[in-house]
Amino acid sequence: MSLAVLASRALCGLDGLAVRVEVHVGTGLPAFHLVGLPDAGVRESRERVRSALVSSGFEFPAGRITANLAPADVPKESGRFDLPIALGILLASGQVPMPKGLDDDPLERYVFAGELSLTGALAPVSAPLAIAMAVHRSRPESCLVLPTSCASVAANVPGLTVLAANSLAEVVAHFTGAAPLQAAIPTPLAVEAPRGLCLSDVRGQAVARRVLEVAAAGGHSLLMVGPPGAGKSMLAHRLPGLLPQLTCEQALEVAALESVAGSTSRISVTPPFRAPHHSASMPALVGGGIYPRPGEISLAHHGVLFLDELPEFGRRVLESLREPLETGVVSIARAARTQTFPASFQLIAAMNPCPCGWLGHARTQCRCTSDQIEKYRSRLSGPLLDRVDLQIVLPATDADWMDGPPGEPSSRVRARVEQCRERQMARQACTNAALSVTTLDEHCYLEVDAKALLRRAMQRWSWSARVVHRVLRVARTLADMDGADGVGSPHIAEAIQYRQPWGR
What we know:
Distance between the termini: 75 Å
Strand content: 15-25%
Oligomer: single chain
Mean pLDDT: 89
Radius of gyration: 28 Å
CATH topology of the largest domain: Rossmann fold
Number of strands: 19
Helix content: 25-40%
Low-confidence stretches: 101-105
CATH architecture of the largest domain: 3-Layer(aba) Sandwich
Shape: elongated
Number of domains: 3
């Protein structure tokens, strides 16, 4: 046959778009054309494929070769199309016969992705897990052929058959029946070793420790305001030790985002913890690029995003957090298309009360003027602060904090957090922080005195509807921690306490 058609995948963000690789070998002057909106990396595959075929003992056809990567309006990047192009040339030129006896068209079941070296060996491709998840969503009955070096990662997608190959010759041997490819063995889910950060290291700050447990139990966002050395960063870095492990599905989604961003593919059940520097740009935080890649907020998906020195971040950077905090996704618009990444993260932020940090301190005098304080605090807009569930002020540490007993260890707190999370999942299949307005009315039943207390707080501080919903979600978490079915006035009172004005 002079025409061969194979299936592959192009990555557009986290989405693996189906690509039809059509290879035609005809008569005419020797030429090798690649069409279908390929970038420079794909166009260079002509030389890689030519050398790989010769090195593997095959002939490179002397006719006119045309490889079309359809659809033509989707940009194609990276070298993952080398393998289907090379195999298509062998099929179209008749050097490899079409397998018989399996189906009328057995290649219909296969999806190929692999970069060829000049020797014919297969090199790993980027984002194999994202490719595998996309194939499983659209064609779960397919067989995905990948290089051995990355096939074991993709094999973690349940229900998908992944075949591992070391070279082009092994793929050809599979289809000729000489030596079938072996199914890849999934890599075990990793549990990262603890970093030695335990909540028992924090002495004092009983209120902050309590709020940190509430944030972990309900998945709530948290803002800590306090002078230098009050323990804000220390508390934030110990939050991941209080969170439950990720489910298999969540771990795969986090690993796929990391692979799309260019990190080494690994699958871990430990929630991610991202702490970008305050000099980070908006594309670094949100994501971007010619071919959009996820930013820090997406890499913190199902985990924690810690922003230290919050007002030092750019205003546009901070405002870009508003939509993801509300919706759990971030959309990056480009001229050709809009790419959406998941961004269901838990925001933990820390800041000083003023530029010098000593406003309200009992022993150190603040050197800032009222204008400087107002300018510093105005960097945080009202709509952004409305989306933060818990806002507390940490007092300065006492002089005798070294004599105090060690705090409760993280393992004991994590056990309570896991128990609270189990109650939420059994009742509503999500954390309390993710409750929608409709489900909030259903699962957050207020007693009469609790409703009256909340109404008085609304009138006193002129809360918006968004703030009221945030307070209700926190109160629901406090009720779950107490094992209560309804939300009582003690839960509402404590939730209000964790959202007191801190000088705005």
